[in-house]
Fold this sequence. Notes:
By secondary structure, the chain is α/β, with parallel strands linked by helices. The protein folds into two domains: 4-121, Nitrogenase molybdenum iron protein domain (Rossmann fold), CATH 3.40.50; 166-307, Rossmann fold (3-Layer(aba) Sandwich), CATH 3.40.50.1980.
Amino acid sequence: MTRIVSLLPAATEIAAALGLMDQVVGVSHECDFPEQANERPRVTHCPVHNAKMASCEVDEWVRRALRDNGSIYTIDEPLLRRLQANVILTQKLCDVCAVGYGTVATLAQTLPGPPKVVNLEPSSLIDIFDDIRRVANACGARERAEKLIVNLSERVENVRERAATIPDRPRCFLMEWVDPPFCSGHWGPELVEIAGGLDSLGRKHQPSAQIDWQQVLDARPEIIVLALCGYDIDQARRDYELLRRFPGFGSIPAVRSGRLYAVNASAYFARPGPRILDSLEILAGILHPMEFPEFVSRGPDDPRVLRVG
């Protein structure tokens, strides 16, 4: 039987969508979906996980930890050995998102077997689909993967085809961090594009990057979406109050029209698994509510998106 240890939330969700949750024997400290993930032992730890810190303090801590230690995470090596995994799901994409691939690969070579280390490194929707296949191939679930990808692809094309008929493509700033400001990268600008918007500040299929606040003012976005990496709705709403104090904030068209939204990026936008399609549909509802009424926020009780402008 395959024994899987998942070191990132997206991989855990992929395994669950493939019907492999019973084979997942360990997860990361951030894995929280599906509910069964919270019943598994946690193999990683991060000192600032759930810490009550301002976003600028988190940014400073991460930069310092990466500079001094090369990582912001620790692995419970004795626990990992006891779990006797034969597949470990990890990533090279981002040292801020999960334990670095090199650390995992080196440790895996000292384990019995050794276990197969599966690297997930997506920068686009197609890459995310390929990651689903990669996990499935390692765990003997190829047919399930193809069925899942067909379903996800149909949802992409539903949004793409409908958005393509809409002449208005509003300027949308998908913001990944507030203090300091970061634009979105990787699949983020692609989601905006498919949903019928234009994110001139985004870095499509490239890592997100810190930008100057003046660039935001110059871009004059008509819609701002706070998709803050690792933050849920409440944390994003807290940073919205910080953003309101930035110079020139009130001059931005999105602010003047009240089209500023906080989303649960921890569960959706920053998590490249099956629920990335929920992210696309959320954006479609934000950008074009009349054309995508089924994706519009259901109000303050919607755990995915909240209008804060």
